[in-house]
Amino acid sequence: MLNAYYGNFCAIEGLSFAIEDLTVDLKKSHAVVIVTHNTQQAARVSDRTPFFSISQAGDPGRLIECDDTARIFSTPTLKSTEDYISGRFG
Predict the structure, then answer these.
(1) Do 62 and 31 have their domain in common?
(2) pLDDT score of 1
(3) What is residue 65's predicted lDDT score, i.e. its pLDDT?
(4) Are residues 86 and 65 part of one domain?
(5) Same domain, 41 and 77
(6) d(C-alpha 68, C-alpha 5), whole Å
(7) How far is the C-alpha of 46 from the C-alpha of 10, rounded, in Å?
(8) Which of 20, 45, 54, 60 has the maximum number of C-beta atoms within 10 A of its C-beta?
(9) Are residues 41 and 56 in the same domain?
(10) pLDDT value of residue 24
(11) Whether residues 18 and 39 fall in one domain
């Protein structure tokens, strides 16, 4: 079973950490996909993290890098991923 949700609904006061706790429990027996711009949330609950981006407005998005979450947030392979994670753009 695959469960997916858009992470921004977690911005509702008081729900964010409860939803993240539920996600951690669910991923023990289900595949869970989270779509979020909140990199801190992704770092807390994800096992693997993909980074998608566009070259310019109007272009289709593309997968830039995907790796274990710890590696994406500590030592990403690509400079564009590091720039996004560190807040240099995005």
Answers:
(1) no
(2) 43
(3) 95
(4) yes
(5) no
(6) 20
(7) 15
(8) 45
(9) no
(10) 86
(11) yes
Q: Are residues 32 and 58 in the same domain?
A: no
β-pair partners for 63: 52
| 3: nearest Cα among 22, 13, 67, 18 | 22
For residue 56, the enclosing domain spans 52-90
14: left (phi over 0), alpha (psi -120 to 50) or beta: left
Residues written for the chain: 90
Q: What is the DSSP letter of 75?
A: S
Do residues 57 and 36 both lie within one domain? no
Strand partners, 65: 51
pLDDT of residue 33: 83
* Local confidence pLDDT in tens for the 90 residues of the chain: 444 555 555 556 667 777 888 888 888 898 888 888 788 888 888 899 999 998 888 899 999 999 999 999 999 999 999 999 888 886
